[in-house]
Design goal:
By secondary structure, this protein is an alpha+beta fold. It folds into two domains: about 1-30, no CATH class; about 30-240, no CATH class. It has eleven helices and nine strands. It has helices at about 10-20, 20-25, 35-40, 45-50, 55-65, 70, 145-150, 195-220, 225-235, 245-250, 255-260, and strands at about 75, 90-95, 95-105, 105-110, 115-120, 120-125, 135-140, 155, 160-165. β4 (about 105-110) and β5 form a beta hairpin. The structure holds iron/sulfur cluster (SF4) (2 copies). One iron/sulfur cluster (SF4) binds near residues 41 and 151. One iron/sulfur cluster (SF4) binds near residues 51, 119, 122, 140 and 145.
Length: about 260
Amino acid sequence: MVSIISITTFEGWLDFLVSTSLAEALAKNPKGPSMSMCDSCHAGCCRSYAVPISGADIIRITSDLGLSFWDFVCRWEDPDGEIAQKYAPHFHFEDEPEMPFVMCLIRGESQTWPGTGKCMFLEESPVTKEHPLGTASCGIYSSRPAACRAFPTKLNPSSELAIISDVPDRGRPSTDPVYELCPGPWEKEDFDAIHTVQDLIVAEYEMQFFNRIATVWNRRPGPFSAFPEFLNTVYSQRIRKETAEDLARNDRPDSDLKHAA
Ligand code: SF4
Ligand code: SF4
């Protein structure tokens, strides 16, 4: 029998569905969404990685939490593209015009494990006998960046299915146990079939939009101090009323609905 985990194309997935009964397919996924592995984890992911953020992530966090850009955003030098990973855009600034930077969440030092790093929003719980590395949770869970929502999944090449990535044992070369990642393998039953794909689609869309913003900014790189205002200007223009020009173009799918109403 073919495993859903091994299906990486949309056509393969459809073939699977038509070759099995719906009841049989549902029986393979009897559980609801679950991220229980994270609940008892020390969050090695949030300790290991610099988290790239999009403009949409920045606007949402500032709006939801009442923070300023400077409270949680930093720019990381990324000359080798290791942080961007062909996902996040590179920005250039006038103080170091040759250096590509990625917008990331600020990191800080762990209180539980001094000398190690973590995301500034990671909230740590004390070490216990049951959890020798402690447990930890995201302090901005409902507003967390799209990259955090997506981990450890990614879209298949045609952007229709969620693929569970192979998570390495460690997030950093360091042998420090706090950088160990997920304690076990992820299974498809651990993810919500709707939200997982939707989160991935939104993450991809917003990062593509941010890449276009980077193209504009990088034509005439300004100082980093001007970047928050630039972002606010761009995102505040993201919604506008329909104009006569829009109507004349008549290329909107809802135009028939308007005429019918
Ligand atoms: S924002 Fe939350 S989920 Fe993302 S790295 Fe920070 S603590 Fe982890
Ligand atoms: S390392 Fe894995 S199990 Fe632990 S919090 Fe991150 S995603 Fe969850």
